[in-house]
Amino acid sequence: MKSYEPESPWLVVVNPNAGKRKGEKDWKKISALLDKNFQYTSVFTEGRGHAIDLVEKKITEGTKKIIVAGGDGTMNEVVNGVFSQTSVPTKEITLGMITIGTGNDWGRMFSIPKSYAKAIATLINFRTYLQDAGVARYYHGKELRNRFFINIAGLGFDAFVAREINLQKDKGRTGVILYIANILSNLWRYRNVNTHIKIDDDELKDEVFTISIGIGKYSGGGMKQTPKSIPDDGFFDLTVIKKMKKLEVIRSLPMLYNGNILSHPKVESFRGKKIRITAEPEIHIEADGESLGHSPIEIEIIPRSIMVIIGDHPY
């Protein structure tokens, strides 16, 4: 574990739009608490993708400790800024979080308190954990792109719902109920996909409803789609939910929240370091809740590659 260095400057990346603009509304309260314990510079994001550029630039200027004041999407952008730069090894950058967003699934995994005062106390305690990251290579139209993530990537229905949720977030709607409402409302529009999945030496060809590829275990505001994931073991946990009837999906929803989804007869689970996915028609992907692109897709683990500040150890 690292030692806490109060004199060492921090960068605080604030998403003013997080949690129905709580990032903006509560910044005075948050900054007053930070002022008592930290030497820091704050920057506000101005739209999707802005945090990636901000963080990449700040690290090249000497920043090594970053606090994310936002949600899972903001954390994902900061992580991508960390991995996009080449000035400093990624594991020498330390990330902490003050959760303001909707799902807060990464914070849930590491017991980051929702209370601002308690979250800042967690930062002061400076309990660090070197966790895995993943990189997804996918297509956006004909363009090959890549995206890093530190929680969960989802394909199929997960990505379909994430896209709809992000469109609604851009219009100011938020809240955990948004996840449930979109699952139910979009279920009737979604079509299963014939998918070919290679997980290291394993292989699966089937008609698929949704796929979750986890470093962490929570997504969608508390669902446990990859309940056995361990974020520093060097492996993804992959949950494949095969074709189901609509009513069966609804009946199975409680199993996503209580962690029993792997016992469902139409669910298969795998562990692996490298995953390749093709589909007909193409299957879409999201990572840490951020809508990305489509197949063909390759996802690879980057073991113990980024240092984070946590509350209680989850494993």
Q: How would you characterize the overall build of this protein?
A:
It is a single chain. The protein is an alpha+beta fold and 315 residues long. It has two domains: 10-132, Probable inorganic polyphosphate/atp-NAD kinase, domain 1 (Rossmann fold, 3-Layer(aba) Sandwich), CATH 3.40.50; 134-301, Tumour Suppressor Smad4 (Sandwich), CATH 2.60.200.40. The protein is built from nine helices and 14 strands. The chain has helices spanning 18-25, 27-35, 50-60, 72-84, 105-109, 116-125, 157-169, 177-187, 246-258, and strands spanning 10-14, 40-44, 65-70, 94-99, 128-140, 143-149, 152-156, 193-199, 202-214, 236-242, 267-272, 274-280, 284-287, 290-309. Strands 7-9-8-12-14-13 form a six-stranded antiparallel β-barrel. Strand 8 and strand 9 form a beta hairpin. The longest helix has 13 residues, at 72-84. The two termini are 16 Å apart.
Compact summary:
By secondary structure, the protein is α+β, with helices and mostly antiparallel strands. It is built from 9 helices and 14 strands.
Task: Fill in the keyword field for this structure.
single chain, 315 residues, alpha+beta, Rossmann fold, Tumour Suppressor Smad4, 2 domains, 6-stranded antiparallel barrel, 9 helices, 30% helix, globular
Look at the structure and give the mean pLDDT.
91
- Kindly provide the radius of gyration, computed on alpha-carbon positions and rounded to a whole number of angstroms: 19 Å
Q: Which structural class is indicated by helix and strand composition?
A: alpha+beta
Termini separation comes to: 16 Å
The total tally of domains equals: 2
Question: With helices defined by DSSP (H or I, 4 residues minimum), what is the helix count?
Answer: 9
CATH topology of the largest domain: Tumour Suppressor Smad4
Structure summary, number of beta strands: 14
Task: Please give the CATH class of the largest domain.
Answer: Mainly Beta
Provide the helix percentage.
Answer: 25-40%
Q: What's the SSE pattern?
A: EHHEHEHEHHEEEHHEEEHEEEE
Backbone shape: globular
